[in-house]
Amino acid sequence: MTKKTTSTKPSSAAMQLTAEQLKERIVRHLHATLGTDINKASPQAWWRATCAAVNESVFDGLRTTQREHYQQDTRAVHYFSLEYLMGRLFSNNLHNLGLYQSAKQALAELGHDIAELEDQEEDMALGNGGLGRLAACFIDSLATMNLPAVGYGIHYEHGLFQQEFQAGRQIERPDSWREYGNPWEICRPESVQEISVYGYVETVYDLQGRMKKVWHPGRIIKGVPWDIPVVGYHGSSVNVLRLWESRASDFFNWDVFNSGGYVDASRENIEAETISKVLYPNDETEAGKELRLIQQYFFCSCSLKDIIRRYKRAHGDDWSKFPEQVVIQLNDTHPAVAIPELMRILVDRADMHWDEAWGICQQVFAYTNHTLLPEALESWSVRMFEKVLPRHLEIIYEINRRFLLEQVDVRWPGDNDKKRKLSIIEEGHEPMVRMGHLSVVGSFRVNGVAEVHSKLVQSDLFPEMVALWPEKFTNVTNGVTPRRWLKACNPRLSSMLDRLIGSDWPTDLKQLSKLAAYADDPKVQDDFMAIKQQNKADLAKVIQDLTGVAVDPAAIFDIQIKRLHEYKRQHLNLLHILALYRRILQNPDYDMVPRVFIFGAKAAPGYKLAKEIIYAINKVAEKINHDKRVKDRIKVVFMPNYRVTLAEKMIPAADVSEQISTAGKEASGTGNMKLALNGAITVGTLDGANIEIAEEVGEDNIAIFGLTVDEVKALRQSGYHSRDYYHNNPEIKAVLDWLETDYFTPGKPGELAAIKHSLLEGGDPYLVLADFEGYQAAQQQIDGWYRDKAGWAKKAIMNTACVGKFTSDRSIQDYVDRVWQLKPCKVD
Ligand code: GLS
């Protein structure tokens, strides 16, 4: 059971604000902050003035929270993440402050529709997908639960690229989310940090003959912090997300500048600024680029120095309380370089003995693993590490030497195979630093993000580490914030819930279980499905606007939204669509409930096959949507530029949620939780958090299919031959062969052949063909279920009722209990 650490009643000063008072604030800011006038202000200016009005309340909360944390000298968690996929903050902040209705009314009285103003805001897309969005949900929960926390990351100038389709192909455009400034952030020049990279290490001896290492950096870079207040829901805490922007150090620049090297100085400027220029657009693939390592080090070093500065303000040079006050959560291995950086600060700068420094480190860091995909397990060539961070490489060697000697050799004396396997340095032609190993060795706790994934982390990824330190390993199943993913994005359903089960559910999501008592009530069923229908009608308009395709809200809305990756198997979905289409062509009376297949996904710009899958879906969509013989039984749409804001429109309108990854590949998934929460029925494999969703909603309310983790392993071991499925199943053969013709790409045969080739010659690494049969059976089951209106309504209601477990508040409480040992700090 989740222990409650939240306040459900509005308590901050903002709650008392009336529409009239807000109006006064908005107009005042229109004049004083925007320098414009009611008569000529643009929608942008109105939006900005409203943000400024809201910020008066936000900043009040921020000041009181910070004062309280300082006075109480609270222990805090510091969330280190290279990604935060925040989306828009306008309606979120209004909802969390309890001001949404007043603002809506105030703006209406001023002649503006709040929804139109919401569209003035660019998404803050400083993340790729689930990992970055999870970080955003977590900081929302931390503030809501009054837990002292700071999020640290990078202030990317360009977030995740914007996606367009040209003739069906993905084109990437740069994202400039803050081209004209962002009203939610505050620059803090008083907290600038300087960090070093490159250079060389000198060994010197002090007067007592003690050896010391001195790092002579090759370049110094300035980190400028931007603070984004994180407003808790109806609680009074406002925490901070602190993002670092890189700039050239004044110190270096002026030197070059004064000696006449204006051009050189500018070049240095540009190079330094490059560090926070762009987010790497790969989800779950390690880039291996020097710039990426520098990004990681840059924000870790700035953040650690920031933490230490704050600690020293309260405790001076007494380091003994540091582990009591500070816990750092590493969001995957991306910030793992923080471990040797803290060692460097303690040993080289604070002159601490190695053992004492290591003791501190091991009480401060905890590591979350978010993926088992081999291509995502970060490792850096020793050569590059040495060039960029020469002193850190030495420290890592020393950490490794002691680990192998004091742990591995004691446990497995003389076992060189074990040493090779466990070494932080992977030997070979090109020696590599393994960041996962470093993270486990340097952390006091390691967790996966769903039950099955945490088990696999232990059994498949780090079994020997588990043998050494069984108590280090734990699970924390992911969650999502119900404030954004139900309350704000689905206002119709939220009001219905308020009426039926009271209004405490946004901070106590288990309350949703009360809804189960109504699952058979015809009136509630009608209301629930009427809301779904209205949400679908809204989405149909968006679809028409974005894609030009007309869809019927009476059809099943079947949605697959997530990054494009072979393991997520959007192509399995496509093969099934092709099979249905073929059945219709073969049998004009083929009986199926009309269905709209809706996709949203960005492919990493360098991921060729992923881009080919997008192209294939778009070409198949074009053909099917225009084929009169289909009689609208199938529509296929690919929503361009899928992002948080689009997800907020799609999720409330979903009937079916596609969660069809190869078992063992999706660590958890969080879209699966959001869709079920909004009453969609999952078609899914027993992978990641789908397993736990199935446990919660029960087998009547979910369509599970496909190989299990163990079956996948067994099939691989016995030898998987995708060609057998191709030859034995005529439908599979027909649709794959179809892709090679010019049926979907007139005059250009073979344009869609990449998918077939990867499934046959490529060996079908994600077992698409092995799961096809089960998948199409699950889809038939959905078709059957949907024909029974009352039965479907019941299933939909049961999904909403049973997924209270998947609030990020529960995840955070699990982290508090199993990892952080934090206490809430109530702010008046
Ligand atoms: C991911 C996993 O792929 C998702 O399954 C998971 O839900 C998410 C958050 O834990 O992390 N790992 C990753 O590198 N990107 C992800 O989305």
From TrEMBL:
Catalysed reactions listed for this entry: [(1->4)-alpha-D-glucosyl](n) + phosphate = [(1->4)-alpha-D-glucosyl](n-1) + alpha-D-glucose 1-phosphate
InterPro entries according to UniProt: Glycg_phsphrylas, Glyco_trans_35, Pyridoxal_P_attach_site
EC number(s) per entry: 2.4.1.1
Molecular function as annotated in GO: 1,4-alpha-oligoglucan phosphorylase activity
SUPFAM superfamilies noted in UniProt: UDP-Glycosyltransferase/glycogen phosphorylase
PROSITE patterns: PHOSPHORYLASE
The entry's keywords: Carbohydrate metabolism, Glycosyltransferase, Pyridoxal phosphate, Transferase
Cofactor(s) in the UniProt record: pyridoxal 5'-phosphate
NCBIfam families given in the database record: P_ylase
Family: Belongs to the glycogen phosphorylase family.
Function statement: Phosphorylase is an important allosteric enzyme in carbohydrate metabolism. Enzymes from different sources differ in their regulatory mechanisms and in their natural substrates. However, all known phosphorylases share catalytic and structural properties.
Protein name as annotated: Alpha-1,4 glucan phosphorylase
Taxonomic source organism: Alkalimonas cellulosilytica
